[in-house]
Write a structure and sequence with these properties.
The chain is α+β, with helices and mostly antiparallel strands. About 35% of the residues lie in helices and about 20% in strands.
């Protein structure tokens, strides 16, 4: 029988041209004028799923961009794997920083270079090609369903409504997602946890108009200064967030998990050099990896106020603004944290200004038990494809839809991602290693062969 590696080698030119046909469609969900491209990309996915062996393949209209669904039911009594991916991509700007056309994929230095090469057209494509191999060789022993959405890069506003309306269609035993990353090309890893997110905009208003700083400076509260003072109080000298009640639901890491995290290869000097900082900083008593992936954080994402043009203008601004966020750990509810932050800011605000705090968006964290049979199957798939057992790691980012899957569908998710930091997703010159592209297809095929439900 043809092995998965032999199948990939024999079909790689076709695989790449099919992937390139998806990449060439600029399905940018953030740009309303790309609505036609979004729909065209959904139809192309419908064609590719059908050609790969899926049945009942359809483009399903939704409140926003359409979803693409397909399935292969080999035995109604067998377990079902639901594969999720997204076909929308981030804008490519700034275009001048790309070394090639972002929507005309090129192969250079053993990589595919294009917007969507990794996130998430390339990674989702590996799922479909593994499925194709299994179907063509009659190796599939459980049911597989696919759902691809076109709004992930704008926060998946239609997803929850779609899940709630199609619970029966999406009924499954486990969800498989390839939209995350590995530690390194030679360090395969499975993501076992994600942080949640809470995000706000703060508006501080002082006088009813911008004032002359000479006539009013020192006599009227400066909203920009007040905003800085407020934000500086959010984290103490030990790096702990000062919002009352913030840590009430934070689960402390077990000694076993801290030992496992400490075993992850991590070069802190290289880490600092890569981002050009002299030293790291964060919550006292935790390592950099623990702070980055397993502990909550508070960040100022943007601030603006007053005159910002060329030259000088001696003005005391009427208003000051900031966008701030907290990364949350599992068990912290973003709605609760959003209100705790609002209450705290209002309690600190002086009477000399007016404060308005607006929650913008948020999501829950997620933890995947490494004892799940599906997790063990993913481990085996990685081990066979990459030649070494994957490490179990939590990641610092947020994918709010993963917690929504569990809340609405009642199903856990396996995060079987193959990206690398160097793949530059969301940035100019996004890319995906051809070597990892091949291994990813093999690893996913291995997952299905080992998964027994």
């Amino acid at each position: 029988m043809t092995t998965i590696q032999e199948y990939i080698a024999a079909n790689e030119p076709r695989f790449l041209e099919e992937l390139f046909s998806l990449i060439r469609i600029p399905s940018i969900s953030a740009h309303p004028e790309r609505k036609g491209d979004i729909e065209r990309c959904a139809v192309r996915w419908q064609e590719l799923l059908t050609e790969a062996g899926a049945e009942n393949v359809q483009v399903i209209p939704a409140e926003g961009n359409p979803f693409v669904y397909g399935e292969k039911i080999v035995d109604p009594s067998a377990p079902t794997v639901l594969v999720y991916g997204h076909y929308d991509v981030m804008p490519a700007e700034p275009l001048e920083l790309w070394h090639s056309d972002p929507f005309e994929p090129e192969i250079r230095d053993g990589h595919i270079w294009a917007r969507g090469a990794d996130d998430d057209k390339g990674q989702s494509f590996t799922q479909v090609k593994a499925f194709e191999y299994l179907v063509k060789h009659d190796l599939l022993r459980h049911n597989v369903k696919f759902i691809l959405e076109g709004e992930e890069e704008i926060g998946s506003p239609s997803l929850v409504g779609f899940l709630e309306a199609h619970r029966d269609l999406l009924r499954s035993d486990i969800i498989l997602v390839s939209d995350t990353s590995m530690l390194a090309a030679n360090l395969p890893s499975l993501t076992t946890g994600l942080r949640g997110l809470a995000y706000w905009q703060i508006e501080v208003t002082g006088p009813n108009r911008d004032l002359h700083s000479g006539h009013f400076g020192g006599a009227v509260a400066n909203p920009a200064l007040v905003l800085c003072e407020l934000l500086a109080k959010m984290v103490d000298e030990d790096g702990r967030i000062t919002i009352p009640g913030f840590y009430d639901d934070v689960e402390e890491l077990s000694a076993e998990e801290r030992t496992m995290i400490a075993s992850i290869p991590f070069d802190e000097e290289a880490y600092k050099k890569s981002i050009d900082v002299a030293e790291v900083r964060g919550e006292k008593g935790y390592s950099t990896i623990e702070r980055n992936a397993c502990r909550p954080s508070f960040d100022i994402c943007g601030m603006w106020s007053g005159y910002q043009g060329e030259g000088s203008k001696t003005v005391l601004p009427s208003k000051a603004y900031a966008k701030v966020s907290c990364r949350l750990v599992p068990h912290q509810k973003h709605e609760k944290i959003q209100q705790l932050f609002i209450d705290y800011v209002e309690s600190l605000a002086p009477k000399s200004v007016k404060i308005k705090v607006t929650p913008m968006h948020g999501g829950e964290g997620y933890v995947c038990p490494i004892t799940l049979p599906a997790y063990k199957a993913a481990e085996e798939g990685f081990t066979e494809a990459f030649g070494k057992r994957p490490l179990a790691v939590r990641r610092g980012g947020s994918i709010p839809i993963i917690s929504e899957f569990e809340r609405v569908l009642g199903v856990k998710t396996i995060l079987m991602g193959f990206g690398l930091e160097s793949n530059a997703i969301h940035s100019p010159n996004e890319n995906f290693s051809l070597d990892i592209f091949r291994k990813a297809i093999a690893a996913v095929a291995g997952f299905h062969l080992h998964y027994k439900g």
